[in-house]
Amino acid sequence: MHKLLIKGKKLLSGSISISGSKNATLPILAASILNDKQSIIKNVPFVKDVFTMIELLNFIGFKTSINRKKNLLKIFKKRKKIKTVAPYKIVKTMRAGVLVLGPLLAKYKKAKVSLPGGCAIGTRPVDLHLLALKKLGAKILIKDGYIYANAKNGLVGNKIRFPSISVGATENAIIAASLAKGKTVLTNCAIEPEIQDLISFLKKLGCKILFNKNRKIVINGMSQTKSLKHEVMFDRIELGTYLIGSALLGKKVSFLKVDPKIIKTEINILKKMGIKIITSNKNIVVHRSANIKPINLKTEPYPGFPTDLQAQMMVLMTKAKGLSKIKESIFENRFMHVSELKRMGAKIIIKNNLANIYGPSKLSGAEVMATDLRASVSLVLAGMVAENRTIINRIYHLDRGYENLEKKLNYCGASIKRL
Hints:
Structural class: alpha/beta
Number of helices: 14
CATH class of the largest domain: Alpha Beta
Number of strands: 24
Shape: globular
Strand content: 25-35%
């Protein structure tokens, strides 16, 4: 099993290219099931979760062609006979496997999908996915770890109000409604940039969708699909991770071909902490700060501060002068990295869903274990800022969501080696 060996205290300088968004790619790949013609997806991050989704598409009966040099993926239907099944053996490591439920049901009127796996950061139930699909006319049964769904006469548009905001359920509902008869109106839905990217893909496919930032999406189902090309947006969580890394260790680090407006919340928070950040139309430059200020944060749905950057931000808070607080309001079990950070010397006290981080703490290298995707990258940042050497175990979590992490950071002066 692979490990990372990190030698700490190496300053970063240069530029880091940001990959395409994993969280945008996965629902787009699921939505490609709707297409009878060819889908060409550009700027695909070839990380473990994306390969798992490609494997699932191949199993269902689609043909995929990968060009890793160009980060390009072509998808087209291989045969008329489609398997409307997403087996446990494929989706057990990936939460996003449940996203094929909506398109299989909408296109082929039935689906058998394994209950999802992924990171152990909370229960993340599929209730809201099923609520939306039932509203569109699906009959659903959960049995032996699988979701059995059918809609013999096809899905029919409806008004759906989500009782709470869910990114995955919103995506599943949008994709399913794209082939439903008539109009669907979603309210209290998620409005993440990745959802807007999915909508852009579906519009190119032929669907009429109106997006409203007041958490309302109107979908008019399409009857025909068409060939399309789509370029996936940049990965805002990867960018946020490297912005935090640059705030910790960067002399001067540049990020090109990104949209600062999409991560406005994160940039404003870093500026409040005393980090010098300069933004222009498509570029961001971060300068190291010797005086990091404490801050209080709460994770929230977009455009709030993302739960996927909570662990990374906690590392930065260990270097702030004073008490910082993070309230985790999205997932109930997302502080598993804290025990590992404490082993490295961090002073953190957890009470329910609130973390109190006392700084500045002197971190020193240790052997640690990754527990989930974002926790694993927080340990990378901690290892980079710590004294001596850090060894991170179970980095397969990291490979699920970060493309060429060691290569990108080493190019800017870090010392990270895969063992």
